[in-house]
User: Fold these one by one.
Assistant:
Number 1:
Amino acid sequence: MFTRILTFLIFVAIIGCIMYGRKVIRTEKVNAVFGNPERAKGGTHWIIVGSSFILLIWLYYSWDIAKSLYPKSANELCQVGKVNDSLLALKYMFPIEERESKTASIIKIENKNLDKFAIEVKKSNIISDQNRQILLRLIEKTKKTISLLTNESLLDNQTKIKILELASRIDQLSMEFQKNDYPYETEEQKNKRLKEAEEEGEWGASGTAIENTVEIPTIPKTDKGLKFHSAAEELKIISDEFFKLKNHNFQYKSTIQEINDEIKKFENEINNDQEITSTYVKDILQIGGRIDYASIFPPNSLKEFEQSIINFEKVQKNEQGSLRLIDIFLFPAGTIVSSGPNCSEQGSGRWLPKLSDTLNKFVLLLKPSVGYKSVPLLWYEMMDVSKIIGFILPDWIADIIPGKYPVHNENGTVEPNFKSKTLDIVSGEFSLFKIPVPMGHIWDSFLRVFLGLVLGIIFGVPLGLFMGLNRFAKGFFDPLIELYRPVPPLAWAPLIISVLGIDNVGKIFLLFMVSFSIMIISARAGASGTQLSKIHASHSLGASNWQILRYVIFPNSLPEILTGVRVSIGMCWGTLVAAEFLAGTTGIGFVENVAKKYFQYEVIWITIFLMGVLGLIFDVTLRRIIDKTIPWRGKG
Amino acid sequence: MKKIISFVLGSILAFNLSVSVANAAAKEVKVAFFIEWPTPNQEDKVKGDYEKALGVPVKWTNFANGGAMTDAMLAGDIDISYSQGLVPFINAVKAKAPVKLVDIAMEYGMGGTTCVTSNKSGITKANAKELEGKKVAVPLGTMAEYVFDESMKVVGADRSKMEIVQMDPEEGAAALVAGDVVMACMFGGNSIKAATEVGTRLLTVEEARAAGIMGIDIVSVTDKFMKENPAMVKAFIKVSHEANVRYKAGKSDMDVIAKDAEMKLPDAKETIEGFKFLTPQETKESMEKGNLSKFLKGMGTPNGAVDTSFLPL
């Protein structure tokens, strides 16, 4: 229902906005000529069209539209899939969906193998001439068996009759299949089936668990589905019978017998040390076995059989009727496929989860009690303020207080003294009052990026300014920075993880390295780009060096610095996810990596969206800050 | 505007019709396997026996974990996965991947897959409760995770109270050596060797066996390949079982196997001795009512993922 309304709204929005856009184009008097950036201003309606389009493509390719418009289509297509599954092996025999028949391609391959093998035997200088002759004769004989199988006049009458019988069974099925009441189900059977189908549930992922559950009900729910279901069962029997059928006519059997006898005799003659020869013999037997197993028939003997299959294909495609159109238009880039007792979505519907399912799972993930791997996405926990105090105050304060830490007394208790009480305070071992602090995967990722960025700014900006203004600093730090800057940040990851560990320290340090170099470059460019006239002017007005730095150079480089911050946020974000992939217990990258292991496509997409949205929030916030704090940007 | 619309419609149509064109018979078979995981059939792999048995070239690709094997199978880059862990296979089946289990590569005790605690932490089976609240490296979604879960049940520690770090075996072993984690679960001979240098197995091989913890590695194929080339699947399984018979008879060339597994000869020998290779008959029993079927049921696997018809009985 939700999807149906959404699809409708999207269509209305797209059409409405396009019409509005065209109207605006017609009525608006624009003075700007082509090339003037004024022409790109405004246009909220195009934003709506753009985002609606993304949603529409998502709904379409995830087959969500199909699900909302025809919720039973998956079940019916599953039955069609069963028919295809039963027919698949037979179809591979004939050039129905292939370029050449399988028999032809096997014969081609085996002839080639035998020729190659014969050449190998001829060239081999390890085996004796006598053995060589025997082997070549065996190869020649094996090759002949193929022609024995493909010779029409040698085909057994019995086999011929059996093939015709199977063909007529398929024809019979095609006839029955077109009747309305096929497969003649009784009322009782019908009720039973419908009840079972009811219990099996509807098409769609479960909204109550993060794990994957049954997606497509397999028991036919509709009469059309039942038709296909029964036909599939019948076809499976026919197919099995056909593949049991072997074209082993008298001449072929006797030739095989001859080859086997000869090999036995030969193997008795050759000594054990002639290992090469015996492997050759084994190889001949293997090729013979492959020819034996492949269903090779004379080229024209299966004509009727092939025709029956093609006929049935036509009939079943006709019977699909509107379902076929639904399959083509509403199940783009794939379809529902049956394999064994299960049906599954194969194609874009498998890896592109439905919008409604994804939203369900997202709501589920957001619940702090569920979360992912028992950590919520974003929630809060109560933390005692004492922990913060303990973190800020260094522990050695307690150590430098004169006296000794208390020792246990005779009563078996430990009396705290002033020194131990101080230790409790500086290590945060006391209770004050609790405040809520955020926690969870999103918060952890955010915090890592934020800390990496802040550290990069704190260290990078002063160093960059210094390098822009001082010859020594520029010369001293330049080779260092320029050498490490071009290295892709992830190249550091294995090293940093083994030196600094898999905890936050390593990840934050990695992000610091990313933002540090960018901040240096941008601060340096900003400092050296200050107009000389401004500096001269402030000198003439009597400004001190510090004042020039603080009031002229720094404000001048701020636009560059803030652009650098924006760039480094993007880089940090990209690096963070990859770093969390390597080792981690929390973070969005961790969630995605684990979801991948369990093929939870919904969760993977949720993490991708979260990353996009968080990156956007970062960027928008920063743009706001830039606009507010440096109105002189681009005007100096 | 018209141009844009026709372009969009055209590309949608093109994408919708991008159904792959199949070939009549495979011209090449792509097989996935593990290094550090010595198996008798590696001798056949090196000597080219598989090519001879299948009649077409065989391309072997090694993988770090079974989940990646499934990924590659879904993308059409792999036809057969040899010795994929049962857990990644089950995850794949639960995620509706069109793959089938056709053979058991081997059953093994904790020799090949195990959890190692660092000696520094002082944690052993007796005080395993102390693992709670500490960091533990586990390659999630693999057999090692299963072994981890089962071991925790045996020692009575609560998994949900630990901080589980997702790490592949090599990384997990490195983290244990560096002291970042107090326990690492892993598979693969070299990783276990590196880990046991600074730690000890939480459960010994015998203890694990007594507790009924056992790993199963399987052979899986894609549905498409199975339907198109049943003869090749059959031939592949046959060669593997022949190699197992040869190994049991003591006729395997361990040097070749160890070299192909990228292990030292004694390590390879030790690892392979921990494997139990089943005969086709035993395999069938295991698949129908034995260990494998119990395992699948225990993990809630949908029916129909197992096919016994390719076994050389």
Number 2:
Amino acid sequence: MTATAIPVTGAAPRRSWAEWLDRQSGRIMVMPAVIVLLCFAIFPLIISAYLSLSRFALAPGGFTLRFIGLANFRKLLTGSQQYHLLGKFGAIGALQWTIMAIVTGGLLFLLARYFLRGRATVVGTFGRLIATLVAFSLALVTVATFAQGGVPGTIVNTLLYVVIGVAVQFGLGLGLALLCGQPIRGRNFFRVLFFIPLMVTPVGIAYTFRMLADMQKGPFAPLLQAFGVSEWSWATEAWSARLMVLVGDTWQWTPFMFIVLLAAIENQPRDQVEAARLDGANGFQIFRDITWPAIAPVAATVVLIRLIEAFKIIDLPNVLTGGGPGLATESMTLHSFIAWRTQDLGGSAAVGYMLLFISTVVCVSFFNFVVRPARRFET
Amino acid sequence: MMRRLFEPATVEEQAPAGKVVTYALLALWSLVVLVPLYWVLITSFKGPGEVDNGPFYIPFVDFTPSLEAWDFMLLQNYTLGPYLNSVVVALASTLLAVLIGSLAAYALVRIRFQAKLAGVAVFLILLVAVIIAVATFGVQWEVAVAVAGALFLISLLTFVGRTRLALGNSDVEFWIISNRIMPPIVAVLPIYVMFQQLRLLDTQVALIATYTAVNLPIVVWLTRDFFAGIPLDLEESAEIDGASKFRVFFTIALPLVRSGLVATFLLVLILAWNEYLLALFLSNAKAQTMPVLVSAQNTTRGPQWWNMSVLIVVMIAPVVVIASVLQKHIARGLLVGAVKG
């Protein structure tokens, strides 16, 4: 910024303008991205924050917005909408107490380990405290709503989709990638074939699986009738409906895990594998000592990418089950969408903010506590 | 080279039993992938009769395929409009996102710069002030924005430059990428109102702009690693020859990361092509895209499976073809992003 000290002579203005442009080119290059994100992310976020703190009502000739503080959040967490977001708590028995004791113990152990290392920073402590609190509350809500007589709400449903879905997709994707990573014929054929579901629109997947799961006219109907279950419908029971959503989600997203993990496996140090094999190591030992360390950073990152996207699930449950039976398959995004459709804009924004909060804490924690160590492990 | 390294020589090494299990498992998953797709494809050649009278599996053997549904959806119904919308919106938003995103990623990797924290703070405060002024005091939004813009410029020219605290490249980068975590449902209501105010609701422009913004973080995330991976000396020698940063970017850096750009382009294209929630809010008739049209097939008479299957087939066919041809690039591109991202 001291370049202006050079005396400007007659022919200089045009050149100095070009110089200024070149000096500022970094900012100019970033500017479009920043402007786009300001318009479509930051600005809407602030307005949504305002909406979540107010009550929206249609009025003659338009609408009115009245500031009501945290009432929308209070309604969701402790008031009339609690059953919707958090669910209905069941009777907490010995099993639930045991699970919560284990979770609490584990979280406290992790916190204690951090402090005992003696390298605690203010930011690190703050982040860990928030992550611990969120993990504890989510575990509590999950355990309480799964207890006898409880009904899970949209938070727990979303968590189920995220945790079970991502875990199953990762397991299947890794398994398929390991199979395909072996010296087999037709690897490229499988690679192309297994990739296809990723490109099908989720709405299309939802309808496709509704067709497939049709008890009277679907392709598996004769099979089901042979077992005498044709009267039963998966859409009327909570767990089978959730399972359908998970099956559709898994069908779509396993390819993503597969394709990236396969590329990582193909990149692992070939000579080490050969050497280990010559020394008589078995497949599991090779996987544990060579393959896994080599692909761990990639694995952590694909799981992170999937986590980020999994929290946003709406298309599948909306089309497959409409969120039913009851609330059994309703995700938080769908919850927010339904609130919007019933003109409860404040409630809709509040649910959206709850989702934003949870997914941010989970994803940032995952990045800091899993992805980063996994990368350090590699180098 | 790769092929010679680990395909033929080691095939015999595997025990025959293990090989059988491997192929059996792979064949099983192939079935899992293919059965749904096959069912959609043959359902599109069925009519109400064939669907309702129980499952039929093989065309020409247990039912006679007809083109009725195809004729109905493509020629009699207005399917081409949404299809064209989808093509335009997906292509335009992907092009924009890749252009803007790779520009930003390049600058973040190669050029050191700072954003003054005070400037950011002033901007945010003014933004909140404008929103409050418009929402609670009923000020015209045009007036509020103009006043705030002027105030922001004045503050930039006066005190902001003298402050010390600043955000570096990595802060800006983290901020851009972290935008992807935001669930679209949080932002979609204000975006809806914004386009309503600008009278752009239910237009392709609204969808293009929104999709560009939504996919921008992914582009930055992936392309930054491609740029970080190319050697510096080419760019440096060009700069010594007097080329501007923009010139270096377009003539040297971009061509060097071609294959990575292809991967990014394809991934973003698929995301934009399949996007549902934002399209549901921002379009209803004129700018309707395919996912919304597909989901709207659930009529009061129950879903018309045959018509819907036609829509699903025409929707997935082009991306399947493109991505199958280019999928090797995708895997490699994603791998680079995932390793260093």
